Amino acid sequence: MKLLIDTDPGVDDALAILMAHHYAEVVAMTIAAGNVGLRHTVANALKLVDVIDAATPVHPGCEHPLVLRAADAAFVHGADGFGDTGYTLSPRAAASEHATLAMLRLSHQHAGQLTVVALGPLTNLALALRLDPDLPKRVSRLVVMGGAVNGRGNTHLVPAEFNIGFDPEAAHIVFSSWPMFDLVDWEATLRHGLDYGDIERWLCSGNERAKFYAAISRRTRTWAREHGRERLLSADALAMAVALDPAIIEDAQERHVGIELSGDLTRGATVVDWEGRMGVPANARIVLGVKQARFEEMARAALGAA
Ligand code: BDR
Ligand code: CA
User: Fold this and answer.
1) Which of 24, 124, 283, 300 has the most CB atoms at less than 10 Å from its CB?
2) Ligand nearest to the CA of 33
């Protein structure tokens, strides 16, 4: 499987990226702003390529959402997005080609073979679609981590999930022009947490990836426990597991999903036509449940634990 990962690393993006490199060929990472600013998300992606000892190109994308500025998630992921450990920066350089142009080039180079996994705000992908509306014809599958399909979001705008709420206009472009994609939302993430004890065991495996992930995730693990989360939530790792192993899906429903752009309380909400009242074709396969044991196996493998 060939993957292109659009991402804003971010602690849970990091677990997804480790998982992707364990199971598949990653042709590139295209980088979004989101969890923290682009300077950090690019540096974090380059550092992960070092830790994995891979050669994956890292393409910086857009610094800001398409229309309005948005607040980042540094309060969860740390000011640098990786738990403020003060890690040594990678000596690697980012690619000079913009993320959006790299997406389009790679979609031609690997036409019909590429799975695109979007783990951050959809700014880069939206721009690629505006430049070339035929992009979906060359991509074999798109998996998006985003949304809260029944309005139980994770941002200050209650029904909005972070990736969609950060750049709703970009999400609107993608959701209204991609014919059919897999959607792994925040509410599925809530149903598929990871046990803290299991994670802590996997992090002790002695492997370099586990050591690095233990360091960068310490702060978010503490934050999650302090905020009463019974399990560790890794939205991006869940989406990556769905991308890498479609057979992991136990329950999914195809529905039309639109993006609210203007509500005072609801901007960034993903509005699902559950009853088919709008009379428009479904655009998303909403993943409602996965095989939990398989997800845990994939997370463990990502960290190189036995
Ligand atoms: C999403 O928002 C980010 O903070 C995470 O990396 C994930 O992609 C979850 O809402
Ligand atoms: Ca992310």
Assistant:
1) 124
2) 2
Q: What atom of ligand 1 comes closest to residue 186's alpha carbon?
A: 10
Query: The domain that contains 69 carries what CATH number?
Result: 3.90.245.10
Crossing angle (nearest 10°) for helices 208-226 and 38-52: 140
Mean pLDDT confidence for 166-186: 98
- Distance (Å, whole) CA 102 – CA 305: 33
> Helices then strands (H, E): number in the chain?
13, 10
Give the pLDDT of residue 239.
99
Q: List phi, psi (to 5°) of 144.
A: -115, 130
pTM of this structure: 0.98
3-state secondary structure of 179: coil
Ligand 2 ion: nearby residues, β-carbon < 5 Å:
8, 10, 13, 119-120, 236
Please tell me the distance between residue 235's alpha carbon and the centre of ligand 2 in angstroms. Answer: 8
Number of folded domains in the chain?
1
For residue 279, how far is its CA from the centre of ligand 2 (angstroms)? 32
Query: Does 76 have pLDDT greater than 90?
Result: no
* H/E segment holding residue 288: strand 284-290
**Which of 151, 142, 149, 152 is closest to 174 using CA atoms?**
142
Residue 92 lies in domain: 2-302
Question: 154 CB under 6 A from ligand 1?
Answer: yes
